[in-house]
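User: hey, got a sec? need Nicotinamide phosphoribosyltransferase folded
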Amino acid sequence: LHLFKLHDFGFRGVSSVESAATGGAGHLVNFLGSDTMAALVLAKDFYGEDCAGFSIPASEHSTMTSWGREKELDAMRNMLQQYPTGIVACVSDSYDIFRACEEYWGTELKSTIEQRNGFLVVRPDSGELPGIVLQ
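Assistant: Yep! Here you go:
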């Protein structure tokens, strides 16, 4: 499971496909979670690795905000219903990451999370680092 604790979204913030591929391949030396497809192509082409990494079901801001602020809890509940087992990641800072963690994940959905066979990754995708993570 530790092989999925650091997921590579690096393609978003680099200057080229080549830098995404090489950086992502470096990530795959130690971890298996990646959304950087260029790294998987590099691993196959240069190292003969048929499947160097994997992705997981994950929401994004558009899939969460499409429910509207008033239905954010329903959107989160839906993610758990759609993916009842395994690892699932849910972006949780569309409106208020602290409310999402304390009220939604930590209270309203807590028993559902504890009963499911898998792990929930709560993703804070914005804010000042490292403060947002430490808070």
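Quick note: The first strand starts at residue 85 and ends at 91. Let me know if you need anything else on Nicotinamide phosphoribosyltransferase.
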